[in-house]
Each structure stands twice: as structure tokens, then as C-alpha cells.
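Lab meeting minutes (informal)
Scribe: AK
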Amino acid sequence: MAAVLSDKSISEGETLSNRLFGGLGLAGGVTEMFGAGVMCVVPEPTMLTKVGCVFVGTHGLDTIQASVRQIWSGRQTNTDTYNSAVALAESLGADKSTAMNVGMTVDLAIPMGFASAVGAVRVAAIRSGRISLAKHESVTGRAPGGHTIEKHVGKTPEELRSRLEKHPWMNSAGSFRTSREAEQLISKVLRDNKTQIEMWVKHVPPGLNAKMELDRIFSHQTGILLSKGSKEVTACYKIRVVVRFEHWNGKPYFVLTAFPKV
């Protein structure tokens, strides 16, 4: 550690130790490359993972080349990232010790910073408790893809009445108040039935066109419903989510529809 902090090579008597640390660095670089590959292919609504893929992948290659040189020579070899950060800090007026600390910080911050940031994004997505209905919807209005936003979000009593008039076979029509509220309610139903959904995903034969209807009662209002022949809407405290097991938008299933129920 003293040698690292003083930016000097360790004595020849510790060549073996240097090579062992080089091996650890090589393993770390390979792990970084694997992590970068995962970032490149993981589906993510933001570009953070793609940016992380480039930066972490580049740093992984830098770590690998430095580690290989250290294993080969038996002498401490710093990464180009470290050397560049030290040179920049010194050019800005930092003394040698401070510049070295900056170099070490930057060298560690690239992989750990992006890992933490991506993790934070995913934790935030989980804690927000919402799916994105748009990713389950049919862009063309035809199958595959659902139609919750189109048919069951933000509808007024007049719009529900008009739908019932256009579709005589329907006994009722319901609507969530907002898209955000619909996503939160649907997400709760999907989480409650996570194990059941995962089992179906694993065991339902491809092309079977299987559907699953999931109901849940809530302690608060979930939306409104208008029954055929009624002049007034009814407050709903229940919803139904219909999941269809067909690959769509990178997922093995999609929300075919969801709506409030009484």
C-alpha cells in the first residue's frame, strides 16, 4: 500500500506478490467486461446502461491490459485511466500525493459509479411500483399487444355510455382515472401473482394463446363503471387484469387488458 501511495515500484523481492495482484486485477477486468456486456443487452428505458456499457467496457479493457503487463513484468503497472487522472490533476496544480489520490478515486469510480447508478435506477423502478402500460400496448391497435390505455383510462361517463351503445354485447364499461393510477394498481396485481405468472411463463407451450385473469379488491376507489341501462356510474374498488402469454416487446407475456370492476 505504501508503494502504491508513493507511486513507486515495489522492490524486486516482491515480484511474485506483484504478479499475484496482477492476476487479481485481470480477474477484476474480466468481471468488468462481463458486466459491461450485461449493460449492453439489458432492456432499459433509459440510456444509462448503454453509456455504462461503453465506459465500464473501456475501463475493463484498460484494467486487463495493465494487469497482463504487471503479471508479465512482475512490476506494478497502473491503468491508463489512473495515469491520465494523475496527469490531469497535476496539470491543474495538485501536488503529487493529491494527484495520486485523484487517480485512484477515478480508477475506482468508473466501474463502481456506474454499477451504483444502474442499481439505483433499477431500485427506483421497483420502488415506484409501476409497470409502463405503453410497453404492453399494441401500437397498431391490433394483436399482439394490449389496449388498456385506449379503452380503460381517463374515460368520462359519456365516453363509457357511447362505447356501450356502439357495442351492444357489452354489459358494462369501466375506466381508471389516470394512466399513472392504472399502472400502480395493475403492478400490485402482477406482484401479488408473481409466482403464478412465472410458473405459467415456464410451462405454457408456445403458441397456446393462454390467458390468465387476475382480480384484486382494494380498500380505495380504483375507477368508475357504467352498466348498460344505468344513468349513473358506480365507484369501483376492484380491478381485473388479463395477462396473455405471448412474446411481445421483449417480454414473455403482456397485459392484454385491465379495467375496474364492482
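Next up, CB showed the second protein from the same session:
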Amino acid sequence: MGISPIQLLIVLVIVVLIFGGKRLRNLGSDLGSAINGFKKEMKNNEEEKNQQERVTHLEDSRIIDAEVKHKDETKG
């Protein structure tokens, strides 16, 4: 019930005859560059998200600077 290799070959020959080899090559190149651009933007988006999480984590942490004195020293 599936597509046989001979049917795929016939479809490929028809597509090459209709569009031509050069146009198919350009379509493949354009598709490849679009996929690369998409992957690059996804990576940039993930890096920005990680950087924003680090900044938020730093803002949430608190630093308390204090000097500790013993009870005996304060009475004196």
C-alpha cells in the first residue's frame, strides 16, 4: 500500500522536467539557509533567556553586610 521506489523515481523525473535542475538547486539552497537562520534565532533566544534568568537570580539574592559584636563588648 506504500509508495514504491519506482513511483518515487517517476515523480522525481517529472519534478525535474517541470522545474529544471537549477531551480531545484536554488530551492534547496534557500530552504537550507532558512533552516539555518531559524536554528540560529532559536539559539540566540535560548541564550537571552538564560542570561535573563541569571540576572533575575542575582537580583533575588540578598547580601547583608553586618558587623558581629558579642554581648560582653556592648555593655562595657
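CB comment: Residues 36 and 42 are 10 Å apart (CA to CA).
No objections, moving on.
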